[in-house]
Design a protein that fits this description.
This protein is mostly helical. It contains 17 helices and three strands. Strand 1 and strand 2 form a beta hairpin.
Length: 371
Amino acid sequence: MAEQTAYKPGLEGVIATETKLSYLDVDAEEIVFRGYELIELSRKKSYIDVVHLLLHGELPEESERLALEKELKQEYSLPDEFFTLIRKLPKKTHPMDALRTGISVLAGYEKNLKERDAEQICRTAIKLLAKIPNIVANSYHVLHDEAIVVPKDDLPYSSNFLYMITGKEPTPAEAAFFDQSLTVYSEHEMPNSTFTARVIASTNSDLYGALTGAVASLKGNLHGGANEAVMYMLLEGKTTDGFRRLLYEKLRSKEKIMGFGHRVYMKKMDPRAVLMKEALRELAENKKREDLFEMCEAGEQLMKEEKGLYANLDYYAAPVYYLLGIPIDLYTPVFFSARTLGLCAHVSEQYANNKLFRPRVLYTGPRGLHP
């Protein structure tokens, strides 16, 4: 009876581990990163600052931030034969599958694959943070018969990532909004992909294996694929009235509407979505696409009134990425690139105080059968 009482479908509300990395305080409307509130961090600090915070436990001094940026730039390049392997994939390969394959390939080049100490995991995390944007951007180019965009050492990390995707150097405003998006996507306590990575790491498997599993988890449209679905909905709606009609049709047919609702944020809007809504407002004004902002706002209001559901991060990140010129198929890989930071930090924490994950089940099948 005790086991039945403890059973929670989807492990909803179940505490799976202890962590010093992040916490979602719904009552206080805060997302905490090592003691700092995420939205304030996103407004005042860069993604690189947050990399240092999550991997090293504290915000960097200017000299430390510059050193970290330099270290990342030294790791941008991929093995010479890497894209030869990517070219052998079917052209219809989803970018998340190309990314999963790419991370697996990189494992073969890692000399310290068996090391589990925190210092070595941190060095490996830096390699992955440097190389995964290159994999994301240029695997897409290769599979679409486009030229590879070589990373530029003179661009900051986030600007370089966006440059490799679009082939154009972003404006300061574009770079700032993209950097903010990477920060808010970087870590979020214990979603499915993070749990997946920690479960894999708990077997003492390597960091590359943990991230490969996390890619598979994040590909699902109930986790990471939602931002792509949001943008396709907006394009299908075309206008504010058309978008409203589309949402009403989906509600009538009882379809799940991506971009709304969250396992944790049930009574208020995802604070990360609030930040991205501000970014969309300014981007839309700069690019003369106020219509897109109006569509999003109308959809947000409709879902709140009709279903009591609030917009989540994916709802407003999707049109931000669209206005930044990012192909829709890359929205989820970009999400994963940002989340690589949180995943690596969690895996390192798992290694440091490991306990193999091995839950039990509530058996509902028959008993007493005989052959």
